[in-house]
Design goal:
Length: about 290
């Protein structure tokens, strides 16, 4: 089952394309990581999926319907924007009452259980909560809506390492318990590695890579060996990145077949290596706007 399908999807602002020619099939029941440098189109894609933006070109279908097309469709999608959007003057309890009034499928018991479990004071104003507590409150509102798809736009970017880990652990527990599908954008590759089993890489407003993380890692290899002309490579080996020294060539290639040339030393990749290679592109420096935080 596909929770999000896009074909030829594009969004432009005057003369600038924030997203262009996007084709995606995101499977249901997965946690999908959405990664790319600043300005790549991550927030635009999430805004289109939530129905907050209308596409300039192409189509997008979310949970079997058109985003933002009516109350029934809006109820299927939860969206937590950047900076943990809560209302500073309202208490935690006020947020839960507001969630109940705005969402027909609101699970009041779930919301109260989460607030109690993570130690939030219902009478505390949201503006006096820590960054981690505000993020947890925003996540509570998104989950208690009981959506089929939860969209998270940089939910942990402003949190310290402990708060990030607690947030992600709580997210994974909710995914396991409630069968959520999640699409989460982040600059923090190591956080995605902890929680995501599906990946989308956006570069220059276009999809550069998408697929199951396990399959992507299995089909990419780092090759190192004596310096050579890339024209001698087999036709089924797609070069993703390349570097040369006077005597050595190092490549990252994508192929479904085995590496048979004995001159190559074959190395395994982690998710961080894979993502950075696609962001870097052949012969370019790694983008500085992508953070790798441990």
């Amino acid at each position: 089952m596909t929770v999000l399908r896009a074909r030829g999807l594009g969004k432009s602002y005057r003369r600038r394309w924030a997203l262009a020619g996007c084709a995606l099939d995101i499977p249901a029941g997965h946690v999908t990581g959405l990664v790319g440098p600043n300005g790549a189109g991550k927030s635009t894609l999430l805004g289109l999926a939530a129905g907050m933006l209308a596409p300039t070109t192409g189509t997008i279908e979310v949970c079997g319907g058109v985003p933002g097309s009516g109350p029934a469709q809006l109820a299927k999608v939860g969206f937590v924007a950047q900076n943990s959007p809560v209302y500073p003057a309202l208490t935690v309890e006020d947020h839960l009452r507001l969630g109940a009034r705005l969402n027909p499928g609101w699970d009041a018991a779930l919301a109260r259980d989460r607030v109690e479990r993570i130690g939030l004071d219902p009478g505390q104003r949201a503006g006096r909560l820590s960054g981690g507590q505000q993020a947890q409150l925003a996540l509570t509102l998104g989950i208690a809506k009981r959506p089929e798809l939860l969209l998270l736009d940089e939910p942990v970017a402003a949190l310290d390492p402990l708060a990030r880990r607690e947030f992600l652990q709580d997210l994974m527990a909710s995914v396991a318990e409630h069968g959520l599908s999640v699409v989460m954008s982040s600059h923090l590759v190591t956080d995605l590695e902890r929680v995501c089993d599906h990946l989308i890489v956006l570069v220059d407003s276009q999809v550069r890579l998408t697929g199951e993380v396990e399959d992507l890692l299995a089909s990419h290899h780092r090759l190192s060996g004596p310096r050579r002309d890339l024209g001698t490579l087999p036709g089924d080996q797609e070069v993703i990145s390349v570097s040369h020294t006077e005597r050595q060539t190092t490549l990252l290639v994508r192929t479904e077949g085995p590496i048979l040339d004995p001159a190559w030393t074959v190395g395994r990749l982690g998710l961080e290596d894979l993502v950075l290679a696609y962001l870097r592109g052949p012969g370019a420096e790694a983008p500085r706007s992508l953070e790798v935080v441990r």
